[in-house]
Specification:
single chain; alpha+beta; Jelly Rolls; 17-stranded mixed beta sheet; 32% strand
Length: 295
């Protein structure tokens, strides 16, 4: 009975999360707006499609997403979770992530969506779309007049720490951004995105906040990897259980067929025996009758 229950549970598609993700940790002023209600952040709170997240000055927030990705918001950043859908055991093409970066900067380490359905992953700003090919990258968007880009033209940026991304304008012009490079898209949408020769100062300022969250993020990804390994081992064990159950089922069916065949053979032999006995009895009776007539 226990084995049957386990097998039935294994056949149910597993949703890794009911929500898009959850807040792992934060520091400073972090607000989450859900269904037009804004509340101060609390560690462990879930975020869902349609939610807005804002960080204040000298603040950061680290989110663990449903597919194992992480999002680290830097100070004075605002994002909207426009879409985040992930089912671990479902088709990869149905999994997708769309983050609207209204202003500020963040760091994203992609999870299973970015690895298995790259076309379904995007970060959008007012001037650009940023896509990935499995990566660790730092998108940013600062509008004109923002203090963070006093040394740099306003617009959209993407810095790649590992892997590869692309940044594309509305006209479809794009540039590939490889490890160690930074791309920029101007407020002028008619211009093509381009790679920068140097690093804007705000990336160096944000690196100081990143060092404060780095230990927590690394520990979080270790937990994610450990859970993923456990699920893989569980799926392997479940597969072995299903195979064993099928084997037992085949053996039971074979035994049942053999028992039916044995019962049928016994019944047939018994009928044949009865028929033979009746024949012999009739022959004996006829012989007795014939002997009586002769006498």
């Amino acid at each position: 009975m226990t084995r049957i229950l386990i097998l039935m549970l294994c056949l149910i598609p597993t949703l890794l999360w009911a929500a898009a993700g959850k807040l792992d940790s934060f520091e400073g002023d972090v607000k989450i707006t859900a269904k037009n209600i804004t509340k101060s952040a609390v560690a462990g709170v879930e975020i869902n499609e349609g939610d807005y997240v804002r960080t204040g000055a000298n603040s950061w927030a680290l989110f663990e997403m449903s597919d194992g990705a992480s999002i680290t918001l830097r100070p004075l950043t605002e994002i909207r979770i426009s879409k985040y859908r992930f089912t671990e055991d479902g088709p990869a093409a149905q999994n997708s992530s769309l983050i609207d970066l209204t202003k500020g900067a963040l760091r994203m380490i992609t999870g299973l969506i970015g690895q298995s359905n790259r076309q379904g992953y995007a970060v959008k700003t007012a001037t650009a779309t940023i896509g990935v090919r499995g990566t660790d990258h730092e998108p940013a968007y600062y509008p004109p007049g923002d203090a963070e880009v006093r040394d740099q033209e306003a617009g959209s940026f993407d810095k790649v720490n590992d892997g590869e991304t692309f940044i594309r304008n509305e006209g479809g012009q794009e540039v590939v951004v490889r490890r160690g490079r930074i791309a920029f898209m101007s407020q002028n949408r008619r211009l093509a995105p381009r790679l920068l020769d140097g690093e804007p100062q705000f990336f160096r300022r944000m690196a100081a906040f990143d060092r404060r969250v780095a230990v927590r993020r690394e520990a979080m990804h270790q937990r994610i990897d450990e859970r993923r390994k456990q699920r893989q081992e569980q799926r392997k064990e479940n597969m072995e259980l299903r195979q064993e159950d099928k084997k037992i089922s085949r053996e039971l069916k074979k035994e049942a067929r053999q028992e039916v065949q044995a019962d049928f053979k016994a019944e047939r032999d018994e009928r044949q025996k009865n028929i033979q006995e009746k024949r012999e009895q009739r022959c004996a009776d006829k012989g007795a009758e014939k002997g009586a007539e002769q006498r």
